Amino acid sequence: MAILVDDDTSLVVQGITGQQGRFHTERMLEAGTHVVAGITPGKGGQDYEGVPIFNTMEEAVKETDPNTSVIFVPAALAADAIFEALDSNIRIICCITEGVPVHDMMRVASYLREDATLIGPNCPGVLSPGKANVSIMPSEIFIPGNVGVVSRSGTLTYEIIDELTQRDIGQSTAVGIGGDAIIGTDFIEILKKFEVDPETECVVMIGEIGGNAEQLAGEYVQNEMQTPVVAYIAGFTAPEGKTMGHAGAIASGGESTAEAKSEALERAGIRTATSPSEVAELVAEVLSITAS
Amino acid sequence: MAILVDDDTSLVVQGITGQQGRFHTERMLEAGTHVVAGITPGKGGQDYEGVPIFNTMEEAVKETDPNTSVIFVPAALAADAIFEALDSNIRIICCITEGVPVHDMMRVASYLREDATLIGPNCPGVLSPGKANVSIMPSEIFIPGNVGVVSRSGTLTYEIIDELTQRDIGQSTAVGIGGDAIIGTDFIEILKKFEVDPETECVVMIGEIGGNAEQLAGEYVQNEMQTPVVAYIAGFTAPEGKTMGHAGAIASGGESTAEAKSEALERAGIRTATSPSEVAELVAEVLSITAS
Amino acid sequence: MDLYEYQGKELLREYGVETLEGIIATSPEEARDAAEQLGGPVAVKAQVLTGGRGKAGGIKVVEETEGVEEAARQILGMDINGQKVQCVLVEAGAQIENEMYLSIMVDRTAKKPLILFSTEGGVDIEDVAEDSPDAIVKVYINPLLGLLPYQVRELTFSARLESDTAKGVGQVLDNLYEAFVGTEASLVEINPLVSTKDGRILALDSKVTVDDSSLFRHENIAELRDVEAADPEEQRAQEAGLQYVKLSGDVGILGNGAGLVMSTLDAVAQAGGEPANFCDVGGGADAETISEALNIVATNEHVKSVLFNIFGGITRVDEVARGLISALEQLDLHLPIVVRLEGTNAEEGRQKLAENTSENVYTEETMLDAAKKAVQLAQGGGR
Amino acid sequence: MDLYEYQGKELLREYGVETLEGIIATSPEEARDAAEQLGGPVAVKAQVLTGGRGKAGGIKVVEETEGVEEAARQILGMDINGQKVQCVLVEAGAQIENEMYLSIMVDRTAKKPLILFSTEGGVDIEDVAEDSPDAIVKVYINPLLGLLPYQVRELTFSARLESDTAKGVGQVLDNLYEAFVGTEASLVEINPLVSTKDGRILALDSKVTVDDSSLFRHENIAELRDVEAADPEEQRAQEAGLQYVKLSGDVGILGNGAGLVMSTLDAVAQAGGEPANFCDVGGGADAETISEALNIVATNEHVKSVLFNIFGGITRVDEVARGLISALEQLDLHLPIVVRLEGTNAEEGRQKLAENTSENVYTEETMLDAAKKAVQLAQGGGR
Prior knowledge:
Helix content of chain C: 25-40%
Order of helices and strands of chain A: EHEEEHEHEHEEEEHEHEHEHEH
CATH class of the largest domain in chain C: Alpha Beta
Distance between the termini of chain C: 42 Å
CATH architecture of the largest domain in chain C: 3-Layer(aba) Sandwich
Oligomer: heterotetramer
Largest interface: A-D, 64 and 50 residues
Mean pLDDT of chain C: 91
Mean pLDDT of chain A: 95
């Protein structure tokens, strides 16, 4: 199984001929992902690494019938690319692009219907080890297994994945939901998918300062979820009112601080680690409990 | 049974204190309709004919929990009233108002979800004889029965209802879908409801020049419908390019003429009358066939 | 409400759509002055709210300024599909490379704006649709999102436009969509949209229809309504708040409700007659409205008989009868009038009418009988 | 990006929101001139990007023009929550009747604009939310439809405003929503929004935060960015394309990726240290970027040690090591630097580093060990 992306994923890369698009298309192909099409207006008819390029999503869909897209276009064009994918019935869309205007994202979010899943923007994407890599994550550090990972961060996720892998704990799917204030899919929707994924036996949730998505996720875990969850929150030392790298990582008192999130998760009965390596330790514990 | 409105209808009147709102509220009450609330901003706390008035739909919903609304507000405010009803989870909305701008209606139509039904605008509303009158139709000429009526017109519908009633042929529900170019609900959606209504044994469809909704309905009747349909089209003598009273009644060649519609319906195997009284004759025939 | 070519172009220019320079003229002299001002070859174009003016001789290209006066003289006053030409647009020339077609309309079925584009412009788009449907690109717009950049790309790539032309057409499309929304049009059509040898994209013609229901919030457009060109009968009816369309027959028709009146027209035609007009007096037809409506119908010299068809629903028929009686008293009509009253309190209404009106008023019980009677009377029989 | 009160008010005025007349002054003399120009009693208000300036003495109401110079002298140069007051807004007086609160913000959970309104203005809205939550009216907006008239009515009726005030507040709300969308703000807040005795509704204060990501299409707003007020360290980092936040501790921190760097700060705190900054060098950290980042961190005189934490994913660790070595060669840093390299090709990276760098560079394998080491070094031990 795995969630969101797997062997059935057929991927179209929006913005395939940009620097990032080219670089990650190669890596996604190397990881065995079925990249069936790329889009760059004006370069239709060419190809990149054997992947045919189209001018529009309409053409790409007609010729190659993709079910998933990954977006590498510049921030000013990202919302347009998402609308193009949605209107062409692409049902899973990962927007890697950073710096997408918040008002654009509010419009996108209001247009999204239940039958489509937007991951990101400003996210590393989705990777199911051994199945499909629709992300900018380093597939080398992953091994297949039964831990689901969902995170607002990039490198911090890799750090934790690495800790898991070093302990021989494999992953079902890793989902970077993105570090912006407004993202297509929040923790809860991903947790729901992991909950019904028979392969996933434990979920790691990596949160950070800003908003209250972790609290809402905590409530969901407490009330609805059977699969055990291990959490980690970054940003305890972040000063109030400062944006810490991610546009959405800003503590402005109340629920948005790391303390508040961490406490809420603990209250919801979720094991919450204080460091990336402790995450791996807790997961190992959970799995050994589950196994026994 | 009946469709759209019945004994379970609890109605809120948007624009209850205007001339039309007052007049028809009385008539709807006389017909036994459960009018539970009225809305007129600034007149909250008052009542009209025992119906409590609220300033906003939000208040009306909180206090009286209506499931249906009828709109009598001026054209410039009609779209706003529809949005207000939709956002307050009113699931059946009849907009009587004439002259609603087409661009307003495009926005409304794009916002409409499947769980809500908008009838009109520029329509007489919906009436289920003996059950509920959510309309400006004269309930005196109706009798309960098993003929469903769906029409783009007002008085022409009354004419046909009268012909039916004079022949002792009762009606399950009469729906005036409205005479504008863009309306919330087309023939097909109403035909679908009649098709699954056990009470309705025959449907009368009254069309006119403009657009091609009759042709689309004809296809639906031919391919999907078991209940027999009798049709009538008005406007054979309408000159090209002229708006005949209803904003949507304009023949501009092609499918929009009465001839084209009539022929398409005949081709679809639908009995098509050439006069209102012939409609009643054909219905009588159909019912006697069905009965035998 | 349809706009004249020059009015439509003025609006389009406000939204950034480029057109040729042009000057409106109502006399041959004005046309010559305009041509002198513009310089070079010009086109003299009849301003009428109907298609086919080219075939009718309503457009003349004049190479030398001297010929303009004569051309304008020929066009002004011309009758094109029943419309008298009251002014011409004198327009500068252009070196045209390609003729394309671009329009945005309200699509009734989809309930959203529909863009049509074709590289085959300057001809009737319906002919193109029939002969080479693949040459037409269709794009539907979600009015809540507006025209999105990817949709412009879809259009220009589907139409296989070259990069420069694509850019220009894309810009025109952006502007035209703004105009469509800004003016609340039900149709904006540019046919042809041309690319010129110097790389511009120009609207060579314009057809703009704005939504009558939206005019209350577009004063500047409402002011363009051409009262002079309107038929005096229709204009008077509009002022009286009647829905009125003048037709060419001899049976004047009044009724309440658009659908019923259309049906009455059809009944008259079925009875072998020809309707002289469509007149919907509306729901609460009082004596004054009925009187004015009858008066307007009677103004038409072709009218030989009048058919008054009322189905009383909410308006009770006896009240309508009272209104009619009082209207007839005020007027001095010698035309035969066939009255058919049906619906709530019809009996009382008919009786009232029988008691009060003169010998030129006939009553019938059914719509078909009333239609037959009116036709018979118009054709000189039946009195 | 936060705007000063006077900048926010300028924007709001462009969208039709009324404010008091005001003049900005950077010296006591300018303040006096401003007061003379305005006439009557004025308020002298410190312009700082932080709350609580009233309590800090940053707002003085002066009845007579003579007192303005002294008031401005006291306020200018004042330190309010770490911000030095560089200018004051001299604002005309008003006869206030009621103080209300109005704001529109981006709601992260609902993913749409949220309007908050309260008849209890002039105080911290969070206090109102705690003490009398019913006094706050909330309205969510669908950004595809915009603010609808019925939503304005819902707000004004829920708040039980009197008809005149409701009309005025409704108008301000319409304008404020236009401003919110037009400037792509993440927050526009008017606290207090006042009604005056002569029936006007005025924004007495303004707090506007615009979305940094949208500035590329709002040149006029981007120009308002206050380079003078920004910390020189942060400003330099911004110019170098680094994500940088200055903090008050003594352990300088660099890393790749915002989440990882936040986590590194937390690790330093857990080890008993205090981070001197947050610095995300980003994905493809080349020698130049690392060099500039190190330089900026070292500029901070409080920094006693530096922790460089890299998880190599796509960027291979050996390449990062090469960049770091080359950066260290270019710089003449005497600070102890703890380097932790992990991820793809970490072994090679660490080896390269061991071979090439001087004695003030320490390598550790885990984040926690690296944090401990850096803290130890900052506290003067461990060399």
